[in-house]
Amino acid sequence: xxxxxxxxxxxxxxxxxxxxGTWRGNGHGDYPTIERxxxxxxxxxxxxxxxxxxxxxxxxxxxxxxxxxxxxxxxTGFIRARPEGKVEVLLAHMTxxxxxxxxxxxxxxxxxxxxxxxxxxxxxxxTGGKRLYGNVxxxxxxxxxxxxxxxxxxxxxxxxxxxx
Length: 164
Prior knowledge:
mainly beta
């Protein structure tokens, strides 16, 4: 699907402009404390001319045939574009934690790591993560490594999404 850079795009958002729009696809999840799973997902990146994107994501567990089994994670936040490809990301999750991430974007890639995590009393123990998003053959591929529930940082989620 063709993509056009919006005329009102803030110059600092140039390195992440390729992410704008709605993306849908499937992915896989794994972690030592849970069963392996497959999921469907939708990511939405919006902008209004200021130096940030609003981000929303929702996922659902799917079976081997791709049928929805149940709803899964949701997160929302802001990707704040800074000069020279630097980014700051603020995310809130329905599971009871919020994160601040820092990183860089260039050449169709966004790489971020957590700087701070805060959680509610009822949220699981989660200490940090690393995310890598890339534009590969026009698709959005990502990998998310997580440190949680006493486990060290390690692969947790990976997906390939297409522009909707």
